[in-house]
Design a protein that fits this description.
Blueprint (H helix, E strand, L loop, with lengths): L1 E9 L2 E7 L4 E6 L5 H11 L15 E9 L4 H10 L8 E9 L4 E5 L2 E3 L1 H11 E4 L13 H8 L3 H47 L6 H12 L2 H17 L4 H18 L6 H25 L4 H20 L5 H17 L3 H47 L6 E8 L8 E2 L2 E2 L8 E8 L7 E2 L6 H14 L8 E4 L8 H14 L4 E5 L3 H4 L4 E10 L2 E9 L1 H13 L5 H16 L1
Parallel strand pairs: 3-15, 3-16, 8-14, 14-15
Antiparallel strand pairs: 1-2, 1-4, 4-5, 5-6, 6-7, 9-12, 10-11, 12-13, 16-17
Helix pairs in contact: 2-3, 5-11, 5-12, 6-10, 7-9, 8-9, 12-13, 13-14, 16-17
Length: about 575
């Protein structure tokens, strides 16, 4: 529900913040007082495009922000994830729109910027606005099918259809992928055979390149290795004198010192250890030198092998020999399995055909269920429309096949599209007066009629409709008296399931308010302002009395207002 609405420098509003409540929130005010400004502000948060003309004349920017309390449901969570919105905890969602003097706008959800499309889709889950605003859901026929489905008792059929369609599309993608792979394998078989032969003949070994590079480094530096190793061997072990011999002499001297003075204890052993290490290094380098051999033929072989492997790495764009080995095995697998593509494709095609048969059957069941439900839905709508002052109106649901070409799905001799909602195109139609032809609902002009049709629709969908807040504007156009009281009762009943914001000038509707707000236009220092005041019970009685009897209040008008409020509570 909308907890609060903050408006600054928008139209005639300087700055105001309105706190709404649950239930039926009634908004009244004199003609021209600016009631439409509130609805227009909400329309901006529902996705209507901004304009510089909406900014108050003494400002450069207008701000509209709503705080919306949310009880999440699956469709909302799915949409938030799809739009990647910054909503982690579903408690209060803040939607803010800033309209700049250039006519452009910045939109934020929980202080994170969003696009107009994201705003429209999110607000469509949170708020339904009915009146003269063209973005309202009822004016978009693509939503009509969801209203009927919400009314019907065939959700199991619809869910089965959705699951089958998902499986069908998945299997179609697999079939397409297999065909592409088969074609690619066929087109590239000769190339793959050549490449497999090249990689096989290369006799690739894991870690071979690293080992070859290390060997080539040694072969190309034999002279340096020999010279420096000889220096080490002579200095430590083979020359006269050498480090090993000197350490031996020091060791003997330390042992004599140890016998004479305990402070030398252990030093001889340390010297022995050092001498043994030096001798080991000396012997190793001496043997290493003896084993070195300059072999230009082997060096050429190693260099050629390194060049071969580096060429293959560059050619096949691999980082190491292991990558070449994996590529070789992939090519072998692809060539070995190319003969199996026909079998795999046939299996996938059989699954596609089987799913098509099931989809046609379930899609047909869904269409029949909708047609049966449409009759009940039409009767319910006609009944409510008659009750709320549209007794001459006739409502109907037009269900037609969604025609397509080469879709693979044939119903009654026609090719139809397998849409996410079924095979049907569904449009609400209405004939407002006797003798008039039925016309699509979205083409009728009256905002008042749209509001009342939506009231009827929402009334029969009250418990199944998930959108938490509904705004009704112009709902009382062309009605009065008893019909107005019935409309008020419908709104009151509907407010048990949704938060309702309703702009009205009829006391019979205003009497049903859970909360009542009055829009006031005032002038100060040659500036005109619009303000909104929450009314307590006494002020409510006075306002309804004004609606009943005009500006000059009488005791009778106030008494009538009290009677109307009391009557609203018991009807």
């Amino acid at each position: 529900m909308i907890k609060s609405l903050y408006i600054k420098k928008f139209a005639l509003v300087d700055e105001l913040k309105i706190h709404f409540s649950e239930g039926l929130n009634i908004i009244t005010g004199e003609t021209g007082a600016g009631k439409s400004i509130l609805v227009n502000a909400l329309a901006q948060l529902c996705g209507e495009r901004a304009s510089a003309e909406l900014i108050r004349s003494d400002a450069q920017k207008a701000i509209i922000e709503a705080q919306i309390a949310v009880q999440p449901w699956s469709e909302l969570i799915k949409l938030v994830d799809e739009l990647d919105l910054d909503i982690e905890e579903y408690s209060d969602i803040f939607i803010r729109k800033e309209i700049r003097s250039s006519g452009s706008a910045r939109i934020f959800v929980n202080d994170s910027p969003v696009t107009l499309n994201q705003l429209t889709r999110l607000s469509g889950m949170l708020l339904d606005l009915h009146g003269q605003h063209q973005h309202q859901r009822l004016l978009h026929p693509e939503h009509h099918i969801h209203y009927l489905d919400a009314y019907g008792s065939y959700s199991d059929i619809l869910q089965t259809y959705v699951t089958l369609l998902s499986d069908y599309k998945s299997q179609l993608r697999l079939l397409s992928l297999l065909k592409e792979q088969q074609l690619e394998a066929f087109q590239k078989q000769d190339m793959y055979r050549f490449q497999l032969d090249e990689l096989t003949k290369a006799n690739l070994q894991d870690n071979e390149l690293e080992e070859l590079r290390a060997e080539y480094k040694i072969l190309s530096n034999v002279e340096t290795l020999s010279q420096e190793s000889s220096v080490v061997a002579a200095a430590l072990y083979s020359a006269e004198p050498n480090a090993s011999l000197l350490l031996l002499r020091a060791e003997e001297a330390l042992r004599q010192l140890e016998d004479l003075d305990d402070s030398f204890a252990g030093l001889a052993d340390s010297c022995t250890s050092a001498r043994e290490t030096v001798e080991e290094i000396g012997r190793f380098t001496e043997q290493y030198v003896s084993g070195l051999e300059y072999n230009p033929q082997r060096m050429d072989q190693v260099q050629q092998r390194i060049s071969q492997l580096e060429f293959l790495l560059k050619k096949y764009q691999q980082a190491d020999v292991d990558g070449l080995v994996r590529l070789r095995e992939d090519m072998r697998h692809l060539l070995n399995n190319s003969a199996q593509f026909d079998e795999q494709i046939n299996q996938a095609r059989e699954k596609v055909d089987s799913l098509m048969v099931k989809l046609k059957r379930v899609g047909g069941q869904l269409t029949e269920a909708r047609k049966a439900t449409a009759k009940e839905f039409t009767q319910a709508m006609d009944k409510v429309l008659s009750e709320i002052g549209m007794e001459q109106a006739r409502f109907r649901v037009s269900i037609q096949p969604a025609l397509g070409k080469n879709t693979g799905f044939e119903v009654d001799g026609q090719m139809v599209l397998a849409q996410p909602t079924g095979f049907d195109v569904l449009v609400f139609e209405i004939a407002s007066n006797k003798g008039e032809a039925f016309r699509p609902l979205h083409k009728i002009a009256s905002g008042g009629e749209i509001s009342r049709i939506m009231l009827a629709l929402k009334s029969i969908l009250a418990e199944s409709d998930k959108i938490p807040s509904l705004v009704f504007d112009e709902i009382d156009v062309g009605i009065s008296g008893k019909i107005a009281q019935i409309v008020g009762r419908k709104l009151s009943n509907l407010s048990r399931f949704h938060q309702i914001l309703c702009v009205t000038h009829l006391p019979q509707i205003a009497a049903f308010a859970s909360s009542h707000y009055k829009v006031i236009k005032k002038t100060e220092e040659n500036h005109t302002f619009v303000d909104v005041k929450a009314l307590d019970m006494q002020l409510r009685e006075m306002e309804i009395a004004h609606l009943l009897g005009g500006e000059a209040l009488s005791v009778q008008a106030v008494e009538n207002a009290r009677h109307l409020i009391a009557e609203a509570k018991i009807i």
